[in-house]
Inverse folding.
């Protein structure tokens, strides 16, 4: 089944403890992105990648890192999480600009 | 700044009604537009993708139209059912890059 898989689905962590949210797609898509969704603020892009080893900042990149070492994986790294990074995170992928996006099921992160 | 607006923010209708959800965007030079459905706490499910050269797309009871000149898209849902209750999100790709700009969504409730 064609899909974007995120792990974990739920995560509660403490301030400052480094964490990684994984994202993998099995559709050979070029484009991958990370979004966060917050009440009243909607969905905002954190980082994106248009191919292996090509990444760039979205609208809200502060406090996050990403890497794209292979086409299928696009992990989101929080080096020192803070409570304001408590949010619902989504990974998405697209074959290219002519195709729509497929979203993962989301990761609900709580930083205490 | 390129913005996407969805009005109303919430809508409640009786089962069986035909309804229209609205999406407006500030810049008519869009690349394509995608409608999503999101159930509470869940991921985004793609409903329809309209390219900038297209006027409409249909899938089952759903029909999405695009009018670039007026900066508007509508999602028409025929014969609504309680299972259609969800938040509907409109997202615009403004260029060939890897970013979607989302509207705030319309929360739809279909009452039996």
């Amino acid at each position: 089944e064609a899909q974007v898989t995120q792990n974990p689905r739920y995560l509660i962590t403490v301030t400052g403890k480094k964490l990684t949210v994984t994202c993998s797609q099995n559709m050979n898509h070029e484009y991958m992105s990370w979004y966060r969704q917050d009440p009243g603020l909607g969905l905002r892009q954190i980082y994106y990648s248009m191919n292996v080893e090509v990444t760039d900042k979205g609208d809200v990149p502060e406090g996050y890192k990403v890497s794209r070492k292979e086409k299928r994986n696009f992990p989101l790294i929080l080096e020192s999480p803070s409570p304001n990074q408590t949010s619902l995170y989504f990974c998405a992928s697209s074959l290219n600009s002519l195709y729509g996006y497929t979203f993962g099921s989301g990761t609900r992160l709580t930083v205490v | 700044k390129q913005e996407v607006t969805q009005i109303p923010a919430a809508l409640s209708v009786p089962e069986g009604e035909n309804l229209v959800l609205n999406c407006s965007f500030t810049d008519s030079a869009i690349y394509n537009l995608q409608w999503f459905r999101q159930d509470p706490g869940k991921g985004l499910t793609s409903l329809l993708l309209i390219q900038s050269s297209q006027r409409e797309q249909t899938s089952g009871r759903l029909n999405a139209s695009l009018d670039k000149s007026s900066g508007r898209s509508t999602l028409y849902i025929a014969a609504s059912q309680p299972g259609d209750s969800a938040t509907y999100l409109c997202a615009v790709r403004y260029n060939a890059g890897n970013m979607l700009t989302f509207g705030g969504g319309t929360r739809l409730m279909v009452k039996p």
User: Anything to note?
Assistant: The two ends of chain A are 36 Å apart (CA to CA). Chain A has a mean pLDDT of 96.
